[in-house]
Amino acid sequence: MPWLLKMTLFAAAIKAVVDLYLGWRIIRAVDFLGSSMFGNWSWAVVFFFVVFYLLPLSGLLQYLFGVNVDILTYPKPLLYLFWFGFAFSFQVLLWVVLLDVFKLLANATGVNAPQLEQLYGVLVLGVSLIVFCYTAYKMYADTNHITTEQVTLVEQKLPAVLDGFKIVHITDIQADRYTGASKIERYIQQVNQQNPDLVVVTGDLISYGTDYVDMAAEELARIQAPYGTYFVIGDHDYWAGSEHIKKALVEQGINVLEAKNEYLKNRGYNNSSVRAYQCV
Questions:
Q1: Distance in angstroms (rounded) separating the CA atoms of residues 88 and 133
Q2: What pLDDT is attached to residue 15?
Q3: What is the distance, to the nearest Å, from the Cα of residue 188 to the centroid of all Cα atoms in its chain?
Q4: Nearest to residue 131, comparing CAs of 22, 12, 243, 268?
Q5: Tens digits of per-residue pLDDT, 255-265?
Q6: What is the average per-residue pLDDT within 112-122?
Q7: Strands across the sheet with 198-201, in order?
Q8: In the predicted model, what is the mean pLDDT of the chain?
Q9: Is 203 helix (H, G, I), strand (E, B) or coil?
Q10: What value does the CA radius of gyration of the chain take, rounded to a whole number of Å?
Q11: Residue 213 main-chain phi, psi, to 5 deg
């Protein structure tokens, strides 16, 4: 079984446990509000959650029928639908559990009125709707926009000549069929606009496999930083074959840190030095 399909099925199995609980709670919430208000919506709730499993179910059926499965060749909406559902379920789970605790505490104190059940139903449905909309917005925004976060580190032990030394940290480029050269190039342009002295990439050059390793390494080589670019192997890189990835990165002049740390020679900072550490 292909690794990506195996991981997708594993994620689907975990999600299924959460969805059974959420589905039960949402159906109960509708019942608390009165079936006359909503009619029989149990089937709609079940359908709502089942739709999110079209990706793993399609992949599993293809695999069982002996068809070569590559999930990344599936239509993009199918991929986004599953991972959107994954994010939605686990975010709404926290709120539903908190509401359950609130309801149990209320019942323990002797409050056991129809108004409480109705309030619980309104809150469960309201929270589910809000989380659904928020997750949809965040998924769209995070997929299509690049944001930067600036953090100023105050370290008294560093010499004054290093004041303003800028390190840019990026991670999880995960090159694949949907994250191609043009998208990564736009990402690298954003990195170069920060005018970094040093760039650190903390893993996951690719999503899986080795088809996009060379392309992604070539795009990383476009980074402009006087102290160079340092890369730490991530879990996706290990699963895909870390030796291939390390070779491609080194050929592009990118430094790979693995079980070591390294001192960088100063370049215009007098007698100072900067130390690059492996991130674990």
A1: 9
A2: 93
A3: 19
A4: 22
A5: 888 877 777 76
A6: 77
A7: 167-170, 198-201, 229-232, 255-257
A8: 82
A9: coil
A10: 25
A11: -65, -55
Tokens at 198, concatenated: 């040093």
At 170, which helix (H) or strand (E)?
A: strand 167-170
Query: What is d(CA 130, CA 116) in angstroms, rounded to the nearest whole number?
Result: 21
* C-beta separation of 206 from 176 below 8 A: yes
CA proximity to 23, closest of 116, 128, 115: 128
CA distance 249 to 243: 10
> Residues 170-221: pLDDT tens digits?
888 888 877 888 888 888 998 998 889 899 998 888 887 788 888 988 999 9
Tokens at 23, concatenated: 């589905």
Q: Please report where in the chains the tokens 């890189």 appear, as a residue.
A: 237
Asked if 236 and 174 count as a contact pair (C-beta separation under 8 A), the reply is yes
Alpha-carbon distance 14 to 268, whole Å? Answer: 53
Kind of pairing, strands 261-264 and 274-277? antiparallel
pLDDT of residue 279: 37
150 and 55 Cβ atoms separated by less than 8 Å: no
Please report which confidence band the pLDDT of residue 10 belongs to, taking 50, 70 and 90 as the band edges. Answer: very high
Coil, helix or strand for 279?
Answer: coil
Distances in whole angstroms, Cα of residue 16 to Cα of each of 19, 51, 212, 214, 225: 5, 12, 32, 37, 45
